Structures are given as structure tokens and as C-alpha cells.
Amino acid sequence: NFPTPVGIIYAVDEPIYENMLQDQINLAIEKQGKGNIQALLNSGNTWEVK
Question: What is the distance, to the nearest Å, from the Cα of residue 6 to the centroid of all Cα atoms in its chain?
Fold first, then answer.
């Protein structure tokens, strides 16, 4: 028998985490390029698990 909330309970006009994360990823790609996973694996900084 609690009251039913109607409308906006609390609104904050702040950046959204997902948008900030995507902006950070896009900035890194602009600065360093898209990257190449195959080049990373063949860079010599790898090890074999036996």
C-alpha cells in the first residue's frame, strides 16, 4: 500500500556514462588509429601456456 510514483522522481542534467565511454574510445582511435589485433599477437610480447 505504498504510493505509486508518477513522473520524474529525480533528474540530473549530467553526461551519461555510456556516451562518455564512447567519446573516450573515439578519441583514442583518432589519436592512435583503429589498431590491429593480428599485429599485436605477432609483436613478440606474447607467451605460450603449456
Answer: 32
